[in-house]
Design a protein that fits this description.
Elements: H1 34-38, H2 42-52, H3 68-87, H4 101-107, H5 111-115, H6 118-130, H7 134-147, H8 152-167, H9 179-188, H10 198-217, H11 220-235
Helix pairs in contact: 6-7, 7-8, 7-10
């Protein structure tokens, strides 16, 4: 006898599986038929599989809620963030009082007097930013901070960060140093001290003095300070 399929049935996807047949397709969700799951798009199937897989960390296929490597990683991140927060004080302007006209005038006498004055350094940094060379001042300030550090572990961490931020050729804030100074740093960085970057700091200081400082004195930033200071002084 020939069995004619029902109008609403599909011979390729029977609504009932023969006895003894094991279904090997995707596991259907509650209330969803195997047919609907088998017709699921590949992207939807991947999303459903991902939702069923427990979260895992990038180092091992274990549950992250008890993964020891994630704990170590979190501790390292917290330590680095704490040090970065400390070093961020050099990314922002230094605390200082408003410079007087006499102080502003002294900045033109010598580069050393400009760099020894916190307000002078802030104004000079503003000028360097317009020339896209602010990293020179940031590197110099970071080296000054490193010289004040006594703790060996902190010295090593700060030295490593200075190297990554300003010495590494992969850094967008790399400062311009000659090969001789780079070789010295590469030797000293193995066992860093507060004076590891002393040669490099001097070279960047000299670069700012000879290259940027003359342009700073002729810049609109400095001239406007002198003009405003003179105007304020005459009103007093």
């Amino acid at each position: 006898m020939v069995v004619t399929p029902q109008p609403d049935s599909d011979p390729l996807f029977p609504t009932a599986w023969p006895a003894g047949t094991n279904y090997t397709g995707p596991v259907p969700a509650d209330g969803e038929s195997p047919v609907a799951v088998s017709e699921m798009s590949p992207s939807r199937a991947r999303r459903q599989t991902n939702t069923q897989r427990p979260n895992t960390c990038c180092f091992c296929w274990c549950c992250c809620c008890s993964c020891s490597c994630l704990t170590v990683r979190n501790e390292e991140d917290r330590g680095r963030k704490s040090l970065e927060t400390h070093l961020e004080t050099f990314q922002n302007c230094e605390d200082c009082t408003k410079p007087t006209l006499d102080e502003i005038s002294v900045w033109a006498q010598s580069f050393d007097k400009l760099m020894k004055n916190p307000a002078g350094r802030n104004v000079f940094r503003e000028f360097l930013r317009t020339e896209y060379s602010e990293e020179n001042m940031l590197f110099w300030l970071a080296c000054e901070d490193l010289k004040q550090e006594m703790n060996k572990n902190t010295v090593e961490e700060k030295a490593r960060m200075i190297y990554e931020d300003y010495i590494s050729i992969l850094s967008p804030k790399e400062v311009s140093l000659d090969s001789r100074v780079r070789e010295v740093i590469n030797r000293k960085i193995q066992e860093p001290t507060p004076h590891t970057f002393e040669d490099a700091q001097l070279q960047i200081y000299t670069l700012m003095h000879r290259d940027s400082y003359p342009r700073f004195l002729n810049s609109s930033i400095y001239r406007s300070l002198v003009h405003h200071g003179s105007h304020t002084s005459s009103e007093c």
